[in-house]
Amino acid sequence: MTASTDYTAQEIIVVAGAKVLEDKKIVFVGTGLPMVASLLAKRTHAPGLIPVFEAGAVGPPLAHGLPVSVGCSRTFTGASYVKGLNAAFELTQRGFADFGFIGGAEVDMYGNLNSTMMGDYPAGYQKPKVRLPGSGGASDMAASCERTILIVPHDKKKFNEKLSYVTSPGHLDGSPNARFKAGMQGKGPYRLITTKGIFDFEENTKRMRLIQTFPGETVQSIQDATGFELLVAPNVTEFAAPTVEEIRLIREVVDPDGIFVKRVAK
């Protein structure tokens, strides 16, 4: 397949996110780029992927295009069944969501996410430096899905040793059985996809570990953009650039209106 030379940071995130998803698995899909990546996966290597949306739709074919929200009518059309928010989260709590796909504005080395506020908590909660969108269903997904896939734009201000606020729990403090002791199920963060590379979480320490660099990045350039020390896998590879066909699908089929994947002005 021919590699594209014309792709954006958002588009490589979408391609990488799609490739993490596996065919015939259940994925609880958050709003935004996770939706785009899930639809791309269904249009390529994972036609049997079963998406679940917070408003209650399970298994829609998404044949009518990209939903604009978790309650969009496109999430309900052709779904295997539709109940409601409680039923969707009950499904995850019973262990039926293989993946939860969520984003955040700030992340720490253990995969805990902040999407609530930037500033001094608790004293500055009412008047934060930045008020973020909040949890929505992300905290429930992070606590209950079998594995979570995280998306965070890579910036030193967003990769911090201590979060302003923990919205969505990851591996907590990284201690043995921390999630189980806190009453959570599932294995927690599985992959983190940023604008610079792909990371997993080392099995024993649960710390963020670089496993793949995006084209043009190095281990050092990624470490320089991170506010804590990264672990580095012994066999770091370069993630292949998106193909021309993958970029065409994103722009012409999956998100032709640029709802979530913004176009770069020429």
Entry summary:
The protein is an alpha/beta fold. Helix content is 24%, strand content 20%.
The whole-angstrom Rg is: 18 Å
| Shape assignment | globular
Q: What is the straight-line distance between the termini?
A: 26 Å
* Element pattern in H and E: HEHEEHEHEEEEEHEHEEEHEH
Tally of contiguous helical segments: 8
How is the largest sheet built, in terms of strand order?
A: 2-1-5-10-11-12-13-14
Largest beta-sheet characterization: 8 strands, mixed
Which structural category fits the helices and strands?
alpha/beta
Low-pLDDT runs: none
- Range of strand content: 15-25%
Write down the overall mean pLDDT.
Answer: 94
Give the total of beta strands: 14
Helix content: 10-25%
